[in-house]
Amino acid sequence: MAKIAFLLAAAALLLGLRRRATAYGNQDNGRMIAAASDGLWAGGKICGTMFTVRCVGATNAVPNPCRGGAITVKIVDRCPGCTATLDLSREAFAAIANPVAGKVLIDYQQL
């Protein structure tokens, strides 16, 4: 089962998939940062990896949360138990979506 989860996470990194993102505070690693869910974390191997992230839609009642455009974030932490694939810093989340939304659908791709 763990091998299947790892293979799915690896495929997601290569193909770029639509997932959810949430926001969390600054961790003194810059402003455009993110934490990875357990499905992406891979025992810390993903730490330091850069991703392009784009908001593509709503997950709740906040209408039209996406601001357009894409950002580049660096994975600097693990987010155990996150229901989202990426937990973006406040600055990163606000660059692609209305912060009031709290969660949005994203497309992301490893650089």
Automatic annotation (TrEMBL):
GO biological process, alphabetically ordered: systemic acquired resistance
Domain Expansin-like EG45: 19-111
UniProt keyword list: Signal
Domain of life, source organism: Eukaryota
GO cellular component: apoplast
SUPFAM superfamilies with a match to the protein in the record: Barwin-like endoglucanases
PROSITE patterns: EXPANSIN_EG45 (PS50842)
Region forming the signal peptide: 1-23
Xref: InterPro entries: EGC1/2 (IPR044206), Expansin/allergen_DPBB_dom (IPR007112), RlpA-like_DPBB (IPR009009), RlpA-like_sf (IPR036908)
Pfam families per UniProt: DPBB_1 (PF03330)
CDD domains: DPBB_EG45-like (cd22269)
Protein name: Expansin-like EG45 domain-containing protein
